[in-house]
Amino acid sequence: MNTASIIQQRPSRLFDLAVYLMLAVLTTVSLLVFPGALIRVMVVALCTSFGLIYRFGYYAIRTPRHAAIYFSIQTLVLLGLIMLARTSDVFGLLFFTLGIQAVLTWGSRTAIAWVVLFYLIDTGGALVYRGSEGIVNVLFNAAVFVLTFVFANSLRQTELARDQNQQLLEELRAAQRQVQDLAVAEERNRLARELHDSVKQQVFATIMQLGAARILLERDPNAARLHLIEAEQLAQQSGAELSLLIHELRPVALGDKGLIAAIQSYAADWSRQSKISADVRAHGDSAQLPVAEHTLLRVTQEALANVARHSHATAVTIDLDLVADSATLTIADNGRGFDASTASRGVGLDSMRERLEALGGRLRVESNPGSGTTIEARYEVTHG
């Protein structure tokens, strides 16, 4: 037997209380029933020893050797009590508590061996001191010890399942934290790319225009003025781009208002920032699609960000169709469009597609140069 065989489950506080209460009752009965002061003192001493060993010995078990020593000492204590009681079998009740402890400690063949030993000692004592009258104890104790083992094993399995569930819960929480950290890292990387591809380039172009204006300021004021106008326009574009990025950084909160209201609120704010008309048309109720709500709202945010940055559109329509087991989000603009088959990864389509595919949804993009862009995000609840 190695250390791996010890998988101790701590009994409940109620079990501890039952053991101590049983010892108190047995001690009281001994003082009232047993003849002779010496026997009473010895019974009280052994009952007290049993309780103290349980309190400080059982919870100190760390290895199979510790367990064997503990159960051996407790068995000797109970043997002493049986010898003192002789014709009384009241102390046999304590063997049942030992049987429960054995199963909670090992939960294997070793526990069965200890339970059988307790049964043999308790039954043997009844036969030795009570003769033929002790035969009744043979069958009675057999039934009680079987029930004791079944009860203790069920308790052990319940405790093990609870511990495993707690461990799984901790692992799930850790996984959720990792997913959140990855999402934050992904968002930071995306914003860094956006800042590099747009704002940084615009600021660099602004600096170049200002430098050219400074050089031409005295020699050719008209040409310098043109460079300053271009620099002003670039600065305005940078400001608008930063406003959009700041708007994206705001928390996308659904709260209690639901997906439709959240999209309407976000689209209205986005329209004021981008100066692009946004019309939201929604049908149905998203109450039965809680898993997809955040993803659809995030797809809306990313799609509108792309419209503001790349499409040169003047109007956008957002159609949201919600039914019991599916949701379809369609975002269409009247911008300049692009060749969807050769679109670069920088326009954010991959991010939207990955979000949907993680839920089992799909993204469809239709666009051609000069004819605007339509993005359709669809999510369906799978059954079975």
How does this model look, in words?
The chain is built from 10 helices and 5 strands. The longest helix is centred in the middle third of the chain and has 82 residues, at 135-216. The protein has 2 domains: 3-170, no CATH class; 254-384, Heat Shock Protein 90 (2-Layer Sandwich), CATH 3.30.565. It is of the alpha+beta class and 384 residues long. Strand 1 (277-283), helix 9 (290-311) and strand 2 (315-322) form a beta-alpha-beta unit. The chain has a 5-stranded mixed sheet with strand order 1-2-3-5-4, covered by helices on one side. Helix 2 packs antiparallel against helix 3 and helix 5 runs antiparallel to helix 6.
Briefly say what this structure is.
Helix content is 68%, strand content 10%.
Head-to-tail CA distance between termini: 46 Å
- Mass-distribution shape: elongated
Helix fraction by DSSP (H/I, runs of at least 4)? 55-70%
Q: Radius of gyration over alpha carbons?
A: 39 Å
- The share of residues in extended strands comes to 5-15%
* Strand order across the largest sheet: 1-2-3-5-4
Number of domains: 2
Count of discrete alpha- or pi-helical segments spanning 4 or more residues: 10
Sheet with the most strands?
A: 5 strands, mixed
- Annotation, overall tally of beta strands: 5
Q: What is the overall pLDDT average?
A: 81
The ordered string of helix (H) and strand (E) elements is HHHHHHHHEHEEHEE
Q: Which parts are unreliable, with pLDDT below 50 for 5 consecutive residues or more?
A: none
